[in-house]
């Protein structure tokens, strides 16, 4: 085969790459970037957030809630908000990097007490009912069937840090075990359950 023949045979391949493969690669890259910076989903692995979240729940995560980041990096391009008490947040465990989902219960400057699973923030009890807490206008049901887990006595949250707990207080590996979370490293805010085992598609706001 001559050089001209080889060049001619390569042209259809190059044309196919430009016509089919390149647009597909660009589309996948854009989808990946959108998932990394705009919205994502998370599958709940355990019962640590019961009754709010059940094992196997699929959750919509807003990746823009706490800052718009450069795709595929942790570099923040735009400050769009900060984790607040009561938010259900997705982050990596400071202990081993495992992706977790827990509730933010205290932010910088808060003084925290936790006894028998019941929180007091800055001296104020959050419980309105035996197994319920109120974060502003948000009412959260707790699961204390396994007890309250370890207590906390007078912990003051330093600048830039968060305390996260599970709603299933006696069955949650949370900030009482792995420590405080760096607020700048929280990936996103869980907005809603969009699929639940046995119930199918739905929209259950968090």
Features:
206 residues; alpha+beta; 2 domains; eight-stranded antiparallel β-sheet; 17 strands; 19% helix; globular; disordered N terminus
What does this structure look like?
By secondary structure, the chain is α+β, with helices and mostly antiparallel strands. The protein has helices at 3-37, 175-178; strands spanning 39-43, 58-62, 68-69, 76-78, 88-92, 99-106, 111-115, 118-121, 124-125, 127-129, 132-135, 138-141, 152-156, 161-165, 181-182, 188-196, 200-205. β16 (188-196) and β17 form a beta hairpin. The longest helix has 35 residues, at 3-37. The chain is globular and about 75 Å long.
Concise synopsis of the structure shown:
This protein has helices at 3-37, 175-178; strands at residues 39-43, 58-62, 68-69, 76-78, 88-92, 99-106, 111-115, 118-121, 124-125, 127-129, 132-135, 138-141, 152-156, 161-165, 181-182, 188-196, 200-205.
